[in-house]
Structure formats: structure tokens, C-alpha cells
């Protein structure tokens, strides 16, 4: 009686093939999971930044009145930054004024306005926390400083460049 120990070459190749198929399918799921996680993180950061900018504007540390800007949420170089006016009483907020907090966003994420062609630059809030019209200077992709209008009550859409999922804010 001859007792067989171990695996045959064919059995081993079948096992290696099955493990290879599982690894390939698992990596595809992992890429989609990472893209969705980036989008979820950016969405949470945007919501937090909007709420922080609004609350800082309501706090109105510089004492602006009417429809003057008391707080800004600005987006540049994959960073959402919350700004308030300078220490001068009555000083309006701009994207170059004091930054309260910065939220880093993945370089794969793009934030667009409702038109889907314009990139999001900023949102301005008055001392009541309402969105107001404001023109600010921002640095564009070419490194030039340009004046842009801040978004006015327009839905924002986050797009993961590598994926197809979007989220809209109103």
C-alpha cells in the first residue's frame, strides 16, 4: 500500500489560479472603496467648513454690519479655508484675511458650482450667517491672481476624478 503525501502539481496550480483571481477582483473593489472614502471625507469636510464659516460670520468678531462679508469659505490648492475679517473693527472678510481653520481635500476631488463648468472658489457670509455677494482675489491654476465672484446660493457638487459619484449641496 502506497500512501500519497502532499499535493500534485495540478492541484497546486489550481489553488494558485484561484488565489490570483481573488486577488485581482479584490483590488478592483479596493480602488472603488478608496475613491468612495475620499469622496465621503471631502463631503464631511465641506459640510464642516460651511458650518464653521457661517458660525464665525455670525460671531462677527470685527463688527461688520449689513451685507458686508463677515466670514468666507475659500477653496484653493485642494484646501478649504475658513476666513474672518482682520482685527480692525469693521474690516470685511476676504480670502486673504485671517484663516481660522483649513480642511485638506484629496487631489482627486474637484468641487464645481451648479454650472458644472466653473470650479468652486468661495462662499461669503454676512453677520447673520446669510450668503452674500462678494468678489475676492484668488490664485488660479496658472498661478495668476484673479478676481472672482463668490458662489451665491448655488448647489455645489463634489466629483471624484477617478470615479463617477457626486454629491450636491443646496
From TrEMBL:
Its main location: membrane. The keyword Cell membrane applies. It holds the Pfam family GspH. It is found in: Cell inner membrane. SUPFAM superfamilies: Pili subunits. It comes from the Bacteria. The chain crosses the membrane at residues 12-34. Keywords: Cell inner membrane, Cell membrane, Membrane, Methylation, Transmembrane, Transmembrane helix. It is a single-pass membrane protein. The keyword Heme does not apply. Residues 42-144 form the General secretion pathway GspH domain. Belongs to the GSP H family. This is Type II secretion system protein H. The lineage of its organism: Bacteria, Pseudomonadati, Pseudomonadota, Gammaproteobacteria, Moraxellales.
